[in-house]
Amino acid sequence: MISQDPYPMRFHPLMKQTIWGGEKLSTLLGKPASGKGNDAESWEIVDHGDDQSVVTNGSLAGSTLAELIRQDPAWTLGASQTEGQFPLLLKFLDCNRVLSVQVHPDDAYGATMPVPDRGKTEAWYVVAAQPESLIYAGLKAGVDRQALGAAIHAGQTERVLHSFHPQVGDCVFIPAGTVHALGAGLVIAEIQQSSDTTFRLFDWNRLGSDGNPRQLHVEQSLDVTDYESGPVEPIRGDNSQPGWQTLIDCDKFMLQSMSSGTAAVGGDNCCHILTVPHGAATIEFAGDQSELLSQGQSILLPAAMDRCEVIPADKSVVLHAAPAANP
Predict the structure, then answer these.
(1) What is the average pLDDT across 166-184?
(2) CB contact set of 114 (below 8 Å; sequence gap of 6+)
(3) How confident is the model at residue 81 (pLDDT cuts 50, 70, 90)?
(4) Which GO molecular function annotation, any one, does this entry have (predicted)?
């Protein structure tokens, strides 16, 4: 059991480098830079195998998220979370180049894989976007397995994908089975199931860092794609209203945003994630304590925490995510 009074926990970001990364995670969000110009992802809060968030503040500094859950799952996750793993993963992405076209399986398919894993439902919040940037989300109406397979084999997958030019503040919901790709010139905050299961079905006919084409997973992609859901459009919250604005409420997680006013979070026997893609915010807790979150910073409120107050600074955005109550 954890005897420590609960408090907002900060973690070391886990930095990931790929061929499509850039430098904006450091220049825009203050993340540590590799110096190679290919920093693609900052995993803010994660408990997935060897990828572990490590607490940096308070008396629990040095503990991994998995260790906290093993010691006291109710303290960390809450009574409704029966799994022995943190169910969500929060990350920032710098899409300096277009990402591969991908699709993720659902939980049922993930459980049958050689190395079983969760499925992957995810959502994106657009932190920054160049005017020409595109998001590819869902198949065009009427595209079936045969049409998708033909487009892949012809090296023309883009022609069957729905796409749009996103705006800063857009939210895009990508349930498992949705074919998708993030275009160049985007910085994204992503909340997803804690899974690293990705099937790559098209990579724009380019070569990887080793000079060879990156591996594709065409048959698996065709097997898990949802051919009924069709195009995905952006969700645009009303940030003119104070308090939390619910962007997504699905069977895996809830995602909210706030730009003004004061709103409560926690005190409900559930863990909560807060991150600040723009500006800053103050978290008031335990009567007279507070924590300042600057742009790009994230915290986890363990389930044992009492109600907190979240106060965004002027021209700021706070994102709030929590696992579904009964996933």
Answers:
(1) 98
(2) none
(3) low
(4) zinc ion binding
Single-letter amino acid code for the residue at 325: A
Q: What is the rounded distance in angstroms from the CA atom of residue 244 to the CA atom of residue 96?
A: 31
Binding site, annotated residues: 104, 122, 180
H helical segments located in the chain: 24-27, 65-71, 73-76, 107-110, 145-153, 218-224
In this prediction, residue 326 carries a pLDDT of 58
Residue 210 shares a structural domain with residue 85: yes
Residue 112 lies in a domain: yes
The number of folded domains in the chain is: 2
- Which residues are part of a known binding site for Zn(2+)? 104, 122, 180
Region 157-162: mean pLDDT is 97
For 110, list phi and psi in degrees, rounded to 5. -60, -35
Catalytic residue positions? 200
Residue 79 corresponds to which tokens in the numbers above?
């009574």
